[in-house]
Amino acid sequence: MVMERWLFVVNPVAGKGKAARRWNRYYRHLATLGKHWDVYHTKSPGDATWIAKKTVEDRAADVVVAVGGDGTIHEVIQGLAGSSIALGILPAGTGNDLARYFGIKKGLRAIRQLQGAIKRQVDLVQTQNGVFINIAGTGFDAWVARHVNNSVWLKRWGPFGYVVGVAIQLLFFRPQRVDIEVDGALYTYRSAWLVALGNGSTYAGGMRILPHATMEDGELDLCVVDGLSKPEFCLIFPKVFTGKHVGHPSVHLHRGKRICIHPATPWPVHADGEVLPQETMEAMVWPGSLTVLCPAP
Fold first, then answer.
1. According to the model, what pLDDT value does residue 135 have?
2. Which domain holds residue 146?
3. Are 103 and 248 within one domain?
């Protein structure tokens, strides 16, 4: 029987530097996997995408394991999308929403889960700037993501930094008109606060913005928060942590295979926790385009 080849792509700066320390613990237990394995340490943004693409082109591995956070996984899948090479995850980031979705634990339990992992085919989402796997959006949350990502201190504070970013953006943010097309049907929201779409259910470290979303149904889920005053928004926003915001009349849900989002004036766009170089979003589901190693039931 031919032994599988695994490549571990390690982002040492993920999770405010925690990834480097976690990797040292992971490394000592790799022999228990019973695989041929190699390691690549990223040195700059985009490095994980480059090595993933090269691995696919050279057929140099059967599995690429992302050691980092959701941003590291986002880079790796740019190279693995549509290939037969599977994605593995050793969580070492701040939010770790993708690990949470797949039921992957932290620490050495993640190594044990890899030992008996099964393969699942999941959907990706194609946009004008590559693919994403979890959640993307624009509006209030994207402004918060941009502010946090541009602040060394807020990034170091983890989830608390995100809360501080929310408080800061509440002082300046103004909702606006957003036109949204879902499988050809047009919806206009006159005073939208945020628009989130995607595959997964949580982002920003556990906020259940799309509580009913799944990565294996061939459709995208969409959530629009519209028509609220600032005090009303402040009352609703905490409910996102439990997913109970979806019962509010100002929260609108849609599902479809192709979704286009056009704000009246440019807003930042985020995907998998990364702020993207675009101001509108055209998204289409790509069914079953990624293989992921997941814990056995």
1. 96
2. 132-286
3. no
Same domain, 11 and 110: yes
Q: Determine the Cα–Cα distance for residues 130 and 162; give it in Å rounded to an integer.
A: 26
Residues 95 and 149: their CA atoms lie apart, in Å, by 13
Whether residues 165 and 82 share a domain: the answer is: no
- Is the same domain home to 176 and 109? no
d(CA 72, CA 90): 11
Rounded to whole angstroms, how far apart are CA atoms 279 and 272? 16
Count of Cβ atoms closer than 10 Å to residue 77 Cβ: 27
In 3D space, the residue among 241, 237, 159 whose CA is nearest the CA of residue 202 turns out to be 241
Q: Which of 67, 83, 116 is the last residue of a domain?
A: 116
Question: Which parts of the chain register pLDDT below 70?
Answer: 1-2, 152, 155-156, 158-159
Q: Is residue 121 part of a domain?
A: no
* Collapsed DSSP state (helix, strand, coil) of residue 255: strand
| Whole-number pLDDT of residue 79 | 98
Two structure tokens written together for 144 = 């918060």
Instruction: Give the C-alpha separation, 80 to 289, whole Å.
Output: 9
Could you give the 3-state DSSP secondary structure of residue 108?
Answer: helix
202: left (phi over 0), alpha (psi -120 to 50) or beta: beta
User: In whole angstroms, what is the distance from residue 220 CA to residue 77 CA?
Assistant: 18
- How confident is the model at residue 155, as a pLDDT? 66
pLDDT digits (tens, 9 = 90+) for 154-192: 766 766 777 788 888 898 999 999 999 999 999 999 999
Q: What phi and psi, each to the nearest 5 degrees, are found at residue 167?
A: -60, -40
Cβ atoms of 140 and 278 within 8 Å: the answer is no
Q: What is the pLDDT of residue 18?
A: 82
Place of tokens 């606060």: 193
